[in-house]
Amino acid sequence: MMLSTCGLSELPPDSAADQSRWRLAIAPETSWRDVDVNLAPSSPEAGPGAVHDDGFAYCFQRAPEGALFAAANFLVQSNTQGLRAPMFDYALVAGDHRDALLADADSTGDVVRLQIVGYRMLSFDGESARVDVAQRVTVDGATNFIAAIVDLEWVDGDWRIPTDGPNPVRMQALSDVGGYTRWTA
Question: What is the pLDDT of residue 119?
Fold first, then answer.
């Protein structure tokens, strides 16, 4: 049994096979914490369980809830200029595109106001997860819904982002959020 880097518990090994369990049809109990201009999810059980010296939150439970909270926190914190580079350095797994993604982490861009509004757990097996997070995003006064599909791997006691491809988070516009489990502050 491998606990998270900060000692958060994990699910029993047989629970990953129970699709009704990992789909998270009912949103987990969640507190929302301020991260710059956005809100990120938090839970004593799922995480984040620690804050790095550089200010980003990390350390998530090895469970569907932990993967969900890790994906959402990655999205919120990667939108925060002061947290992006150190958080990328921690969260990005060694891979073909890691160096290019780290170089992009230092770039400046528009501050985006985002609000997480729902999710879909696409897959979970305890070693990897794919999470689709629906967000309401406002840029320059225009508001749209987007989906962010985040792939995660369990590496060194935490959920991290693989870098085998150039786009570890795939975004697409949404016309509505039907089909997502409602999850918002």
Answer: 98
